[in-house]
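User: Sequence for Dihydrolipoamide dehydrogenase below. Tokens please.
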Amino acid sequence: MTDLTCDVAVIGAGTAGLAAERSARKAGATTLLIDPAFNGTTCATVGCMPSKLLIAAARTAHEARNAGALGIRTQVDIDGPAVMRRLRALRDDFVSATRAGIDRLPDGVRITGRAHFTGPDRLALGDGRSIRAGAIVIATGSSPMIPPPYRDLPHHLLTNETIFELRDLPKSLAVVGAGPIGLELAQAMARLGVRVALFDHSDRLGGVRCDDVHDALKRTLARDMDLHLGSDPAPSVQDGTLRIDWGTGAETFDKVLVATGRPPDIAGLNLAATGLALNDRGMPDIDPESLQCGDAAIFVAGDANAVRPLLHEASDEGATAGRNAVSYPAVSRPDREVPLAITFTDPPLVTVGAAPTRSDAIGRADYTNQGRARVENRNVGLARIYAAAPGGRLTGADLFCPGADHMGHLLALAIGRGLSATDLLALPIYHPTLEEGLKPALRDICKAVPLKIPADRDTRTPPGA
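Assistant: Structure tokens for Dihydrolipoamide dehydrogenase:
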């Protein structure tokens, strides 16, 4: 068979891989994009979009149940098969749009199959061909990690890659792992009428770095499900029934969702052939800005590097890796965007920027008595905002409150532009809005630094707004 050559070879056609190939091709490079199936991105197929479809149904059910507080009486009847049919129909629509973009790639770019390294600039394909590339981008994504005790439960086991294929909602569900995936799907299932218990080895939910925010999150989730934190759940099947034992108790469940993380999908790449030093997880050292592996013409982007496993980060990383692959050895180390992570619980859990240092000023905004949140019967949670002293320049925030997914973007923009608490208070924030609820935290910072509080806007917000 004819061997192939190119300037840049990209392994993996997910979000990062597609961005890397496009970036390299726009820079004038000849490219090859290798993927076993070209099925679409993780986000569209088994991640962001199907999970949000389930969450949307759960939110509607929850709001209907609680409509009595607004004087509206309603009876909630959840049609599980209909929920799952809608989820798959819209999921498939999103996937088809992604695949349409892949179909528009130039002729000769796509190679369907698997590749592994045979040298630092050489790849072997499953059909016997080889590729010699000037640079190689690894964008193979990640896969669910299934601990050994759960691997022998094929009829009861669910992951985020299989749960959306359920034809009906289970009557009961054990969720193992309290990271973002576990939190989102556990709460959604619970609000759709499923009996849910959430287990985690840690005493911390979702890696939340603020104690106050964590306490608010824990209180909210405990209203919908049983929480077994700091536990060591052990599964077993007796007479076809799944049983989870956590030492201080045991229950039976229809299904178990294992959400214990998604490590990089590097199996079969034969990274040892690259000559790079590998750690005990088989991963090379990766520069988090350039995405380069050591001094080699090898770059790792997206979930495959486990730096920031989020879609917008994967897209940015893919573009960076593609540009650097073309310009190698003259690689660039662009500044990363302000970290922004959103867990789509209800209300959303949001982490922005850096954690506070001992010298930072900290502001707190309570949303249990915030005006717009009370109007909408969503008055839950709080926001904590951090700023560097002196000057009051915003550095980070942790939020668990209604509208946090939108306000997180506002705060990320402010942090990225070096704005202070005074600068945000000087903005024309409309009344009554959820954004207005951030003002108490910003005023706390101004008083602690201290900074002048813009009096003309400060006096227009009524108490509790």
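The chain has three domains: 4-143+264-327, 148-258, 340-458.
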